[in-house]
Design goal:
Number of helices: 13
Order of helices and strands: EHEHHEEHEEHEHEHHEHEHEHEHEH
Oligomer: single chain
Distance between the termini: 57 Å
């Protein structure tokens, strides 16, 4: 029941961002930008506006209750939301990002959402011209779907990324005499991303073999960089954990999560940001020993500190590896919020200072690291080991910038 934009290409993603802000201001609702994986991983030249949107002046809401999430206010706000639905639907039907085109064979229609429209267009020249509805702004434009049916559609193929949400909605909109196809019927894959090949097959296009289905192309899963400090941490962890019958290592979200993959296979569980410490605490409280948590520096300041406080309060017997590579490596090398403060944070949260240990993860220090790991695992309380070495990607970038600055000096 909220407005959504789903770009089909990079230019639309740029333009829709501005349109979403303007629509949000107009209807006083949050507007969602649905960016699917393939769109997020693509790039293209984009024409930018010469008239940037002016930054809003600071203003206060006319009714502060709009921003207070209490049931008494929410009930009244929901009534207003219901009253807005006709206007939101009208905006969707009239949106320049949505359009309907009657084909030469109107009995067969296609509804394409977001980037799926591109996949359809890549195959359109090789198949019969169907009626096409492109959807890139929601609520789903029911009037345009009804127009497709009125033009004679007896079969509609729904192409969408992710779950078959639109396909299910279309089934509820069109008469039962109209056959709706898509992921639910097996005409498109039930799981995974759409591709030009899978869309072509659904359209009856003879698909030539491509890299996507070639049998002699091996997948290349992501791996920790050569020389990464996390690699040495996992080498040490595996060596020490092998000496215990029931050791469990709980991972967290970051590039170090790749320690779950070959060649390390070190992690037993990974759920969400900060959960490594709370999972380790729960396991330890249930009797698991050793119970080890691996968490990155940025994730620790994001949502790991509260778990550590709980562990300290209960004196849980866990060992936390706070892997510090001096940056937020997974998302581009931004500064980490707690850099140079991690020892102080851990002590302030109640970890005994003598059980906050710092090591340098290098092969030459493996003997020291494994010794410290064993010592802290044997300690009947909360301990934190901080392996600290700069991310090699960040270090390389800094070195390049330094050389460039020197050359320009």
């Amino acid at each position: 029941m909220m407005p959504i934009f789903e770009p089909s290409n990079q230019q639309e993603a740029y333009e829709m961002t501005r349109a979403a802000f303007e629509l949000s201001e107009a209807v006083k609702l949050p507007v969602l930008m649905r960016v699917t994986t393939r769109m997020a991983h693509s790039r293209a030249v984009v024409e930018v506006t010469e008239n940037p949107r002016k930054q809003n002046e600071i203003n206060r809401p006319e009714d502060v209750r709009t921003w207070i999430l209490l049931p008494a206010f929410a009930k009244k706000r929901y009534v207003q939301l219901l009253a807005q639905q006709d206007d939101l639907m009208k905006a969707s039907v009239e949106s320049k990002y949505n359009f309907y085109r009657k084909g030469n064979n109107p009995e067969r229609g296609v509804i394409c959402t977001g980037i799926a429209y591109n996949y359809y267009m890549e195959n359109a020249a090789n198949c019969e011209e169907r009626s096409v509805l492109k959807v890139a702004q929601y609520p789903l434009p029911v009037e345009l779907i009804e127009k497709m049916v009125a033009d004679g559609a007896k079969e509609i193929l729904v192409m969408e990324e992710g779950q078959p949400v639109v396909e299910e909605m279309v089934r509820a909109i069109v008469p039962s005499t109209v056959e709706v196809k898509g992921r639910l019927t097996g005409d498109l894959p039930r799981m995974g991303e759409l591709t030009p090949d899978s869309v072509g097959a659904a359209l009856g296009v003879v698909v030539e073999p491509s890299y996507a289905n070639a049998q002699n192309v091996m997948p290349r899963p992501p791996a920790l960089c050569q020389g990464c400090g996390h690699r040495d941490v996992y080498d040490a962890l595996n060596k020490v954990a092998a000496e215990y019958e029931d050791a469990r290592i709980f991972g967290d979200i970051g590039c170090y999560t790749l320690g779950a993959l070959p060649p390390f296979r070190s992690i037993d569980s990974c759920v969400d940001m900060g959960a490594s410490i709370t999972m380790a605490k729960g396991a330890a409280d249930a009797g698991v020993h050793p119970s080890i948590a691996v968490i990155g520096d940025s994730t620790f300041t994001h949502s790991g500190m509260t778990g550590l406080l709980d562990a300290v309060n209960d004196n849980s017997r866990i060992t936390i590896i706070l892997s510090d590579n001096l940056t937020t490596a997974m998302t581009g090398g931004q500064d980490s919020a707690g850099t140079s403060k991690y020892e102080a944070i851990c002590v302030a949260l109640g970890v005994e200072p003598e059980h906050v240990r710092v090591v340098v993860p290098l092969p030459k220090n493996m003997e020291e690291i494994t010794r410290i790991l064993k010592e802290e695992i044997d300690y009947p309380g909360v301990s934190v080991i901080i392996p600290r070495r700069e991310c090699i990607q960040t270090a390389a970038r800094k070195a390049r910038e330094a050389r460039k600055a020197k050359e320009n000096a």
